[in-house]
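ARCHIVE CARD
Drawer: 12
Card no.: 0347
Subject: one protein chain, sequence and derived structure
Cross-reference: see card 0346
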Amino acid sequence: QRVGVARTLAADPPVLLMDEPFGAVDPITRASLQDELIRLQDELHKTIVFVTHDFNEAVKIGDRIAVLGPGSSVLQFDTPEAILAHPADDTVAGFIGDDAALKTLTLRTVGDVALGEAPTARESEAPHAFAGRLRASPDEWGVVLDDAGRPVRWVRGDRVETMPDLRSGGQPVGGHVTVDSTLQEALDGLLSTASATTVVVDSAGAYRGTISIDDLVDELRRIKHHHAGDPE
């Protein structure tokens, strides 16, 4: 598969037609080939007509998607985001499936959402001082950072004062994301935390902010509202 794609690209054609190019490989190899094609496209900027029966693949790869019906009629032609937000008819909706919202989360990154600011404290800070800030905050949970500013654990506001120090106790931060992570990855991360919130870090692992389930729901609503009655 890789050799075939490489030979085609070597000829430098203005337009590529790829008809189910990854249909006969296992899921892991298929995902790898998709990622490689996306990487190459970022470098080469070719016009590619990519034929697939896998809507997830179309969403991942395509800038525009044409959903074809009987007789190759075009049922809908739009961006992946617009089709997911407002399918043209029941046939398109059936092709998308029941998890349109989850598919939409793969199209946006954490950087597209305004980050939250949970109360933070260094591990060396006295618990009672942090407890005071948490009481003054609407947030139920705070984030403890190490000396390098990296998030290490969540602590609940109603339990901080009983802790001997901030170097122990609380809940591990668990998975974290960066601004380049997809909102789907953020959802996966927050589902594994007691706070139902994911910590966002920079490339060095330092704390940048948070993203919550409410932030994801608000973003999905905003996307749906943006595309309401606005076919392209």
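Annotation on reverse: The two ends are 34 Å apart (CA to CA). The chain has two domains: 2-100, 112-218.
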